Each structure stands twice: as C-alpha cells, then as structure tokens.
Amino acid sequence: MRLLDRAPASGLSLRTIAREVGVAPPSVYSQFPDARAMLEFVARECWQQLADAMGLAEDQCAESATSLKRLKAQLAGFVSYAMERPSRYQLLFGFLVDTGALPDEPGLLQPVYRSVLRGVRAIGDDGMPFAADDPITATLQIISLAHGRVALAHLAPRHPGNTPAAIIAFVHSAIERLFD
C-alpha cells in the first residue's frame, strides 16, 4: 500500500514489491503467481478499505440521525478516501477495466455497493420517495455520481472546486435531489 500511496498502480510489479519489503523476488512469487494476482489482492483490500471508510463515517453520525444523513455521511467517507488516496482509488476502477473483471465478482465492488444499497433502502423504509425506479437503480446512480465527480477532480486536482469539501457538498446536493 505504501508503494501505491507514492505512485500509480502501473508502477507496481512483484520485483518492486520485493524490493520495498526487503525480500528476494522469489519470496513474493511464492505468495502471488503473477502481477495480476497481486493487483487483484491489492484491489480487494482497497475496496474493503473504501467500504470501511464509508462505514466509519456513517458510524460517526448520532444515533438519532436520519437515514438520509447517514447515507450522506457514507458518501463523505467515499469521497474522503478517494481524494486522500488517489492511486488506491484509481486502482479500484482501473483494475476492473484493465482485467475485464466484472463489478459483481465477489469482493470487488460489493462492500461499497451493499453499504450504499442498505442506506438507500433505509431511506425508502423511512417513507422518503426517491427519483429512481427502485433501490438498485438509486444505488447505482449514487455510486456513479460520486465516482464521476471524484474522477473529474483527479484530472485537475489543483482546481479550487476540486477539494474534498467541495466534492462532498456536490455529492450531498445531488443525493438530496434524488430523494426530494
């Protein structure tokens, strides 16, 4: 993970990892048969870290917080993770594209997807209507919205509107419109 925090995933190799941890390359090869297997392992870890960041942000809400506020907190955790760890975040979606992995493969997108879906369903259970046809569509809209805004910010990180706070405000505003 330290390597990812310093450089993009494209610079990861089994030899680079071996050098970073101070072992001979064959030691790493005994853990991973190839670079793709290693990247898949790292991507799974990053997906779980992202879901954990979302859960932690939601857990920091008061028990009396509305389901909408709890969902917004999750998405603030999503944006914060993505903006604080751009190489890790970019690996998540780059790995899916580069390898042809499907988002519904166990362990990839699922922790994040399930967290948002749970939040969307809670909002529905509270009687708040949402603009989407069903909770699954609303969940996909929310994840797409947050991911799209983060991806745009990663393209121009120094633009004043691309701070984590500004992106969170944008995502929160859009979520409010979805559940208006």
What does this structure look like?
InterPro entries: Homeodomain-like_sf (IPR009057), HTH_TetR (IPR001647), MT1864/Rv1816-like_C (IPR025996), Tet_transcr_reg_TetR-rel_C_sf (IPR036271). Residues 13-32 bind DNA. Residues 1-50 form the HTH tetR-type domain. It holds the Pfam family TetR_C_33. The chain is mainly alpha-helical. It has helices at 2-6, 14-21, 25-29, 35-59, 67-84, 86-99, 110-125, 135-155, 164-178. It has one domain (43-178): Tetracycline Repressor, domain 2, CATH 1.10.357. The chain is built from 9 helices and no strands. The mean pLDDT is 82.
Question: Could you give a short account of the major beta sheet?
Answer: none
Fourth-tier CATH superfamily name = Tetracycline Repressor, domain 2
Distance between the termini: 40 Å
Mean residue pLDDT: 82
Please give the share of residues in helix. over 70%
Domains, number: 1
Q: H/E series, N to C?
A: HHHHHHHHH
Class from helix and strand fractions: mainly alpha
CATH class: Mainly Alpha
Task: Please give the radius of gyration in angstroms.
Answer: 18 Å
| CATH architecture term | Orthogonal Bundle
Q: What's the total helix number? A: 9
Q: Which strand-content bin applies to the residues?
A: under 5%
Q: Please mark out the parts with pLDDT under 50 across 5 or more consecutive residues, or reply none.
A: none
Compute the number of strand runs: 0
List keywords for this structure.
single chain; 180 residues; mainly alpha; Tetracycline Repressor, domain 2; 9 helices; 71% helix; elongated
